[in-house]
Specification:
mainly alpha, 78% helix
């Protein structure tokens, strides 16, 4: 009886084990997909009486770095007053010493250019008017004596030419070669004309130098200023335009002043080149007129011409 009961019990247990094996296998396959449960021995981190699952944690707000803080602090409203203060005078005052020296030198060169322009314009206008008037006065003169009397005691290039012709005729009074007198007089005329050309070209070299070198001097100041700006960028470790713009603007101001000095210098130089050329043509006409008067006196007879010169000069 007991044996049959034990056999029946063992059979029931085996049947239960056999039936529960598929359920255990299914539980083992599904278990990894579910979140692990907290052990009973460890207390819950955030115990809550509410059985509802806790809400997802909100993402943390990003912490602004130094660059973003610096960019946000320089809003357009705060940058605009700074940019409005970039006047030429403020840029000059805040420039480096080398850039200031370049700007001052270019400003002085520009002042010299306009000074030469005003002075030489007045001088050339007066000398051309005077020489034209003198040429009109001796247009009807038939000898050196008549021309000398027509000009009177006036000073200028034409009286100097007439005086050189009279002096050569007097010094060659004991010589019979008229051609030699003309050659010596022409040599004296050429020296007077060259001296007048050198005098009238005074200041042109300054204009040429300013016009040729001012852009490069201004470019040197610009390069120096931009180099300092890049050094400031590396020190501040920022590429914000509001930080580097003033230094670059100060550097570019040197190039602007260089162009302001160079462009008028080139224009004024070309203008004076045309004007002086016209004046030297008048000087050549005066030299030719003096040579013709000397030739007439020599054809009439040297002694007669000199006698008339001395007699009229004595009167």
């Amino acid at each position: 009886m007991k044996i049959s009961f034990l056999r029946a019990s063992v059979a029931v247990m085996l049947a239960v084990v056999w039936l529960t094996q598929p359920a255990l296998a299914q539980q083992e396959t599904v278990a990894p997909a579910s979140p692990p449960t907290q052990p009973a021995s460890e207390p819950a981190a955030n115990p809550s009486p509410n059985p509802v699952a806790p809400a997802a944690e909100a993402p943390a707000a990003p912490v602004p770095d130094a660059k973003s803080a610096d960019a946000s602090s320089r809003s357009p409203k705060s940058i605009s007053p700074l940019m409005s203060e970039l006047s030429p005078w403020s840029m000059f005052m805040s420039a480096a010493v080398v850039v200031k020296a370049v700007m001052i030198g270019l400003a002085l060169a520009s002042v010299a250019t306009w000074t030469i322009f005003i002075a030489k314009s007045i001088e050339l206008s007066r000398m051309r008017r005077k020489l034209r008037l003198a040429l009109r006065r001796i247009a009807d003169a038939s000898s050196l004596a008549d021309a000398k009397l027509a000009l009177g005691a006036n000073e200028g290039i034409l009286p100097s030419l007439l005086a050189a012709a009279i002096r050569e005729a007097r010094l060659s009074a004991d010589l019979s070669s008229d051609s030699g007198i003309k050659e010596r007089a022409a040599s004296s005329f050429a020296e007077i004309v060259r001296a007048e050309a050198r005098r009238i070209h005074f200041g042109m070299g300054v204009l040429a130098t300013v016009g040729a070198t001012s852009p490069f001097v201004g470019l040197f100041g610009t390069v120096w200023g931009i180099m300092n700006s890049f050094i400031g960028i590396s020190k501040s470790q920022t590429t914000n335009l509001a930080v580097v713009a003033p230094g670059i603007a100060e550097a570019l101001l040197a190039t602007a002043i260089g162009l302001v000095a160079a462009i008028p210098a080139v224009i004024i130089y070309n203008y004076f080149a045309r004007v002086t050329k016209g004046y030297l043509e008048l000087v050549s006409r005066a030299s030719g007129a003096s040579g013709r008067l000397l030739s007439r006196d020599l054809d009439r007879g040297l002694d007669r011409g000199l006698g008339s010169v001395h007699s009229r000069a004595a009167e």
